[in-house]
Amino acid sequence: MDLGLQGRTALVLASTGGLGRATAEALGREGANVIVTGRRADAAEEVAAGLPSAIGVALDIREARSRQSAVRSAEDRFGPIDVLVINGPGPKTQTAAALSADEAGAAFDDLVRPGVDLISQVLPGMRERQWGRMLAIGSSGVVAPLAGLVTSNLGRAALAGYLKTLAGEVASDGVTVNLLLPGRIATARVDGLDRASADRQGLDVDDVRRRSTALIPAGRYGQPDEFGAMAAVLCSSIASYVTGAAIRCDGGLVQAL
Fold first, then answer.
1. Which of 1, 19, 194, 250 has the most crowded Cβ, counting Cβ within 10 A?
2. Rounded-to-integer distance, Cα 160 and Cα 250, Å
3. In which element (H, E) is residue 248 found?
4. Domains of the chain in sequence order
C-alpha cells in the first residue's frame, strides 16, 4: 500500500534511538525525507546515513535556539516540513506524593513546551499548503496513569489536552493531529524501567519482565518496528480522516477501549 509519503519532509524529535528512531526509519522506508535529531550530532548523522534520504541534526529539545536551528536546517535541505513527530525524554521515576512544584514545572518544560514551540513554527506553512501531519509519541499513562511515573503522566497528559484542542482547530486545513501511545515496547527506556522496578522490589529483572508479559494479552513485549509502522500510517496520506485521536500500540495491555 502506498502511504503517500514519497517526497514529504518529516522532522522526528529524539530519533537516534528507541521509538523515535523506529518512527524515523519507517518514514524513511516510505520515501519521506527525514530529519533525524538528537543531542549528539554524530549519533543523528549515523542514523540518517542508514536511510534513503535523510540528514542528522543536533537538537536539544529543551533549548529554544536549538529547536529553531533544527527547523531551519530541515527547511534548508528539504524545504517545508510536512510531518512533525513530537517525541521527548522519558522522565525519571517519581511518586506523586514526593513531587515538588519545581519538578512539576520541569515536566511541563520537557514534555509540553518543546512541542508547542515547534508546532508554532511549522503549522502556518502546513495550513497554507492544506496538508500536514502532527504526531506525538506519548505513553499509555495518558489513558491509565502509571505508578511511579508522575512527571510523565503529568506532562504527557497536558500535551494530549493541547493536541486534542489543536486538532479541532486545524482539521479543516488538511492538518491532522494525533497521539500514538506505546505499551511495553522492547526499547532501552523500557529495559531501564524494568531494571528500576526490579531494584525497588528486590527481584531479578527477568522476573519483572515475566510479570509484565503476563499482563499483556498479546503475550509479549512489542517490537520498535511494529510501533514505527503504526506511526508511519498515522503520518500518511491515507490517514487523512484520522485526527484528534490517541491510538494505543500496546498489545492490549490497557484495559480500556
1. 19
2. 18
3. strand 246-249
4. 9-183+222-246 (3.40.50.720)
